[in-house]
Design goal:
This protein is an alpha/beta fold and about 350 residues long. The protein has 13 helices and 13 strands. A hairpin with a 2-residue loop joins strand 4 and strand 5.
Length: about 350
């Protein structure tokens, strides 16, 4: 038996948010009983570095371990930590456009290494990057400038640089949105996006960056219907799509849903959880901090499946190594010089 495997058996098959800057007594009691695999933070949970450190400490104390604490700190529009305490970053697509492949990759590595430094300082040890979706002219604006490029090869290289920079700072990268959210014109926060692309088209482009990064330990699904694979169900809840994710794309890591409370999904919270886990997801992500919904998630999802325990341990081990100290001012100066070179 692997070290820590018996403990993993007790984890809940879910990741939870909380409603405010500090959890109240009822939330803490629930987290202690439900024992989620980890937690995720949003802007509503953020006030200052010291406040986040205390929040992270309270969440981990509730479950009695160094649980993963995730955040979406992409930079650009999706950036939960902002000035005056944290650096403002340009949208990834705007940062990379106009740069050579080498310069764009180096800038992406620096960007996410520096973001990891900021996160780790606050007690956050997982970041929901890289985003390996390929931008197109039809990509919904909520997604497009969060992408890294318009072609698969460049997306692969920049996503790998983002993942490496993140991991270099001892923060766990989360690969998203598997198997690709670039083609649909819909916004999964408010509707269920679809794409009519053929399987051949998907395999020749959309799937390639995810295949290239398939060795990452944690990934997130897309709430997207791929009509050529499964007309009736989004990837998150489609056994056919998840089989492709595992077999053709080759992703063997811990697979979490995108936010289960998003409007793209139909049915009750319980039905959404059951469908996602039955399809082959390992973890349910629930973000809005609604305590009653979280209770439903815990009840319907149960403990992490035995088949996922080793994958979960690999994800935890990925952030257990010490972080090599780097000169922050030097990295910042190099990053700024790369972007100035583009404009000249």
């Amino acid at each position: 038996m692997r070290s820590g495997e018996s403990e993993l058996m007790a984890f809940g098959a879910y990741i939870f948010g909380c409603k405010g800057q500090y959890p109240d007594r009822e939330e803490l009691g629930f987290f202690a009983d439900a024992d989620p695999f980890g937690f995720i933070l949003f802007s509503r949970n953020v006030e200052s570095p010291g406040q986040i450190r205390r929040l992270a400490c309270e969440l981990r104390e509730a479950v009695g371990r160094n649980a993963p604490i995730l955040i979406d700190q992409e930079g650009g529009r999706v950036q939960r930590l902002r000035p005056p305490y944290w650096r403002e970053w340009p949208p990834p697509l705007e940062q990379s456009e106009g740069l050579s492949a080498d310069a764009a990759a180096r800038a992406m590595w620096i960007r996410y290494r520096r973001i990891s430094d900021e996160l780790r300082d606050c007690g956050i040890n997982a970041n929901c990057v890289p985003m390996a979706d390929i931008a197109t002219e039809d990509t919904h604006p909520i997604i497009r400038n969060r992408c890294y490029a318009y072609d698969a090869a460049r997306v692969s290289r920049l996503a790998q640089a983002a993942a490496d920079g993140t991991a270099s700072g001892s923060v766990l990268p989360v690969l998203k949105h598997i198997p690709g959210h670039g083609r649909p014109s819909g916004d999964s926060h408010v509707e269920l996006p679809t794409t009519a692309a053929t399987l051949e088209e998907l395999e020749s482009a959309d799937f390639r960056p995810f295949s290239d990064l398939a060795d990452l330990p944690l990934g997130m699904t897309a709430h997207v219907v791929y009509e050529s694979i499964d007309r009736d169900r989004p990837a998150t809840q489609s056994p056919r799509v998840i089989e492709i994710v595992r077999e053709r794309i080759g992703f063997a890591g811990l697979l979490m849903t995108d936010d289960i409370s998003m409007s793209a999904l139909a049915g009750s919270i319980e039905e959404r959880c059951e469908a996602s886990l039955s399809a082959g997801c390992d973890l349910v992500l629930h973000c809005n901090g609604d305590l009653n919904e979280m209770k439903s998630v815990a009840h319907s999802s149960g403990a992490l499946a035995e088949s996922a325990q080793e994958k979960a341990q690999c994800a935890i081990d990925a952030v257990s190594s010490p972080c090599q100290s780097l000169d922050a001012a030097e990295l910042d100066a190099e990053f700024d010089l790369i972007l100035r070179t583009k404009s000249n």
